[in-house]
Amino acid sequence: MGFSADVRARFTADGSDGFTVDAAIDVRRGESLAILGPSGSGKTLLLETVAGFHTHDGTVRWDGQPLQDLPPERRNFGFVFQEYALFPHMTVRENVEYGTRYHDEIGNVDRLLEALGVDDIATRYPPTLSGGEKQRVALARARAVKPQVMLLDEPLSSLDVPTRQSLREDLADVLADVTAVYVTHNRTTARAIADRIAVMFDGEIVQTGDPKTVFERPCSRRVAEFTGANTVDLERAPSLRSYLGIERGATVSIRPEAIGLAEGEGELTGTVERVVREDATSRVTLDIDGATIDAFSEQYWPVGETVSVSIPTDRVHRL
């Protein structure tokens, strides 16, 4: 068994009509679940509601035991905030040790500091730390109380790209043996750290599955587009429809990384419309029969060039 939540909560801010979250999640013991969705979809509200910060209807359970009537401090959840929430007047060590005074079972603080690469700054204060250092300290503080569940609210979103990549790798190790719910709008982060992904739109979970299923077999056009897949109405792209051998009236999703490009003209061709460099690869936007499709390529392709396109049929998903 593990952690489960089925909650309904309404949050009203000044000057707004309010926002409702009505969602259910299940997380097996030792599993990391990423809640992936755009800004404003209710991800943070769901996480805060599960933590006990908002009143709500429904249930929150650990190993079948109800927790929804307990205050946040008695739910034994570790919460990692997007903006660190460290005590500025306490040293790094004091911040990490803070919650341990209220728990009988605690982690080894020295080992946590070392594991997260902040043991050498244990006597420094938060205002002197970089964003990456602050987030590592916040993670160590949350782990120090040996929580039943780790709840993480976009802890990498405010970091620069190199720091985010480095911490993402460490985070995958830190969460390897922990039951965790991780909120993010970043699909790369979700794929990197999650055992399963729950996609959230407008306060509701619309699809849950392992990363491969969610990204390769999206349940709708909206999920496909949010997770970075091409979506194509084959009725408007007859040569592509013929190439794929799919009947009229179908809309499909195709991952850009599944598409191969080569010189010359083959069975299926496209015209290069735009090339955007992304680290070691380029995102190449193609026009195929009037359909706009993105592909990744390590080779440079001039705008206007006709290229041969190959698409494995087993990487094509009908929506």
TrEMBL record:
Gene Ontology terms, MF aspect: ABC-type tungstate transporter activity; ATP binding; ATP hydrolysis activity
Catalyzed reaction equations: tungstate(in) + ATP + H2O = tungstate(out) + ADP + phosphate + H(+)
Record-listed E.C. numbers: 7.3.2.6
Segments forming domain ABC transporter: 5-227
Source domain of life: Archaea
CC terms in the record's Gene Ontology section: ATP-binding cassette (ABC) transporter complex
Presence of keyword Transport: yes
Primary subcellular site in the record, as a coarse category: membrane
Entry keyword set: ATP-binding, Molybdenum, Nucleotide-binding, Transport
Topology in the lipid bilayer: Peripheral membrane protein
Location of this chain's protein in the cell: Cell membrane
Pfam families named in the record: ABC_tran, TOBE_2
Assembly notes: The complex is composed of two ATP-binding proteins (WtpC), two transmembrane proteins (WtpB) and a solute-binding protein (WtpA).
Family under the similarity heading: Belongs to the ABC transporter superfamily. Sulfate/tungstate importer (TC 3.A.1.6) family.
Name of this protein: Molybdate/tungstate import ATP-binding protein WtpC
Species of provenance: Halanaeroarchaeum sulfurireducens
Top-level taxonomy: Archaea, Methanobacteriati, Methanobacteriota, Stenosarchaea group, Halobacteria
